[in-house]
Amino acid sequence: MPSLDPAIAEIRRAVRTALADLPEGAAVVAALSGGADSLALTAAVAFEAPKLGIRATAVTIDHALQTGSDAVAARAAEQATALGLEARVVRVEVDDATDDGPESAARDARYQALRDVADEVGARAVLLGHTLDDQAETVLLGLARGAGAASLQGMAPVREDDDRVRWMRPLLAVRRTTTRAFCAASALDVWDDPHNLDDRFARVRVRERVLPVLETEIGPGIAEALARTAEQLREDAEAFDEMIHETIEDIVEHAEAGISVSVAALAANPAALRNRVIRLVVDSEFGVSLTRLQTLEVARLVTDWSGQGPIDLPGCAAARHGGRIVFTART
Length: 331
Description:
With 331 residues, this protein is of the alpha/beta class. It has twelve helices and eleven strands. The chain has a six-stranded mixed β-sheet, sandwiched between helices. The chain has a five-stranded antiparallel β-sheet with strand order 7-8-11-10-9.
């Protein structure tokens, strides 16, 4: 009896481990673009899910941004059907005139469509095909942007989304070369997205130019090191967040049209904790993510108070009133 190809064994094992966290009878959605990563993921789901009593649906999102995208989506769905899965193609409209650009708009549209299908089929989880290489690229991009520890944590293997759906990335420890080897060994027809070679996109430049140079000049293992960094930072952040939530319970009070925080308590904490409290309070109350500069301006109301007036922030304003920093909604 021929031995199982190592790439197939590795990816099936990763998917089996992820699915094992779900109860028997659960339903999942596998996001399938037709590329090697998502094809390998979907094929492994088709093999492993039935053995665990899990129902799986493959969903391909047609962004309609490229000529022939409908044919690509149809071919991906055909392969999912051949693997024994229910397959769906969902066409979305992408608003590429947004401030964040077409990449972000396409991602938002894709994730919303996946949420909708998950709700429709009663899926507990959506499985995404991001690999260790994607994680390394994400960390490096975050580092280049100076986006702070939150960005350097990269993508979480599992993320809950407002109790609606669990986003799972079973392949975050798997290299992209392994997903390609899986597809080759499984005779799957891989679609190579031309956008993945378009150097207008920063992620493509990181993938095709920056990471290869780092590997050449510093040595092999850069991608793995970046992924390990993300994992370690995520562990630290989870512990830090637990501390912050415990702190917030004691120092935050609801105020008219907003929320307030004790100046003395903020001042007594180190800068890292103080700044995280400020960001978390604003995010939880007003749904706004503050930049580092905005966060530091609010912190100055605590650490460098000289009677300055309110600070305008996205969606709210911050002002010092006596011994409290008061955040109120902007009208």
